[in-house]
Specification:
alpha/beta, Cobalt-precorrin-4 Transmethylase, domain 1, elongated, 4pyrrol_Methylase_sf, Precorrin-6y C5,15-methyltransferase (Decarboxylating) subunit CbiE, S-adenosyl-L-methionine
């Protein structure tokens, strides 16, 4: 393994400035790494006959070359190597390596300075090779200043369309392109104007402003679009909030909502616990469009929807990195309560919970029996009568 990495951050400037120590280290090194863009910037500084390892997918091949390089390697990266940067990747692959980091401004710092914008309150989200999860969370929480790192799929235009789709059009987008280089441009646009605009591949975004959409704690049942002709096919608001409490979602990371119907439980959970990874399962295909429209209506992006019988799905793809799930709500089981319970119990993390809302006594008894089969603890049941409807029992099973 290489004895030491020197990780040097670059802007897009074609005339980089380094301190004397860094210049000396570049002069005596023989193995360098970075993207092709970085090589174009620093190539004139590299010693004759030096070796360049291009950092590009597949990353496993890059790490193998770095591991086999031996001796010191100078790595060039963009901005601050420890801000969503390659420095963290090196630390992951080579936890025992000695590293020295020479940061430049990150692109978002540079953009904030171009705007003369104090950025101590800025929240950050990276979409570079990642899901929308970080950005969705900040939108739901109503963050007033968000710095966003983009990629070639999740572009400023794609961000703008997401803002409009879920009702967060009160933000403006400040797009910084090729910052520090000859093609630098800074533009502020509304989501509508940005939604079909084209930008330089090297860009970042600052979202700022408001007004923000209304936030809910307990969404009225009447506000949801329901199944046509089936107005009672929804987990009522009082039950919904009590169910979320029984699921103990405040301490969870991965949540499954099985039989989501209108999506009321998943949407309420998403708005109250925006850091949750939520997967919602439903076999009635007419519910997919209903869910999507309700999610947009209430500003709840980011719930993963899986259509089809949960017993025939590859559910492990929707668990955490360790294959575990922290909370499962069985909102519908179609007579397959035991089989669905088994799938959930086999993947339940320590402290995790399975919850059902039982209308019938036999459902409650079957739930209790399956919990005992899996040696799960059964807290006291909670009975609620929502309005003029029949009493419903919220039962929970806990993995100790």
């Amino acid at each position: 393994m290489s004895e030491q990495f020197i990780v040097i951050g670059l802007s897009d400037s074609r005339s980089p400035v380094f301190d004397p120590q860094t210049l000396r280290e570049i002069a005596v090194c023989r193995v360098f790494a970075g993207g092709e863009r970085h090589r174009a910037i620093v190539g004139h500084l590299l010693p004759h006959a030096s070796r360049w390892i291009t950092i590009a997918p597949p990353m496993s091949d890059v790490m193998r070359q770095l591991d086999e390089a031996g001796g010191r390697v100078v790595v060039f990266t963009s901005g601050d190597p420890l801000f969503y940067g390659f420095g963290a990747t090196l630390q992951k692959y080579f936890p025992d390596a000695s590293c020295r980091f020479v940061p430049a401004f990150s692109s978002l710092q540079t953009l904030a300075h171009r705007l003369q914008l104090p950025y101590q309150s800025m929240r950050f989200a990276s979409l570079t090779g990642r899901s929308w999860q970080e950005l969705d969370r900040l939108l739901i929480e109503g963050a007033g200043l968000i710095g966003v790192l983009t990629d070639r799929c999740k572009t400023p235009a794609a961000i703008a369309r997401r803002l409009l789709e879920y009702g967060y059009g009160g933000y403006s987008l400040v797009v910084g392109e090729a910052l520090g280089g000859p093609e630098e441009r800074v533009t502020e646009l509304s989501p509508a104007d940005a939604s079909d605009a084209l930008f330089h591949d090297l860009n970042c975004v600052i979202l700022r402003g408001g007004p923000f959409r209304e936030r809910y704690y307990g969404i009225a049942d009447s506000l949801f679009e329901g199944l046509p002709g089936r107005p009672d096919m929804i987990t009522k608001m009082q039950l919904r909030l009590a169910t979320l409490s029984r699921l103990n979602l405040v301490n969870c990371s991965y949540f499954w909502d099985i039989g989501f119907c209108t999506g009321s439980v998943s949407i309420e959970a998403r708005l109250q616990f925006p850091g949750l990874e939520i997967t919602a399962f439903e076999k009635r295909f007419e519910c997919e469009g209903i869910f999507e429209r309700n999610a947009r209506r209430f500003g709840a992006p980011g719930v993963r929807v899986v259509m089809g019988d949960v017993l025939k799905q590859g559910v492990d793809d929707h668990a955490g990195p360790d294959g575990r799930v922290d909370a499962v709500f069985i909102g519908g089981h179609g007579g397959q309560l035991e089989a669905i319970f088994d799938i959930a119990a086999e993947r339940l993390s320590p402290g995790g919970r399975i919850v059902v809302n039982a209308v019938r006594t036999d459902t409650l008894e079957r739930f209790h029996a399956r919990a005992r089969h899996h040696a799960l603890r059964l807290p006291d049941d909670l009975a609620i009568t929502p309005g003029r409807h029949n009493p419903i029992t919220i039962a929970a099973a806990v993995q100790e």
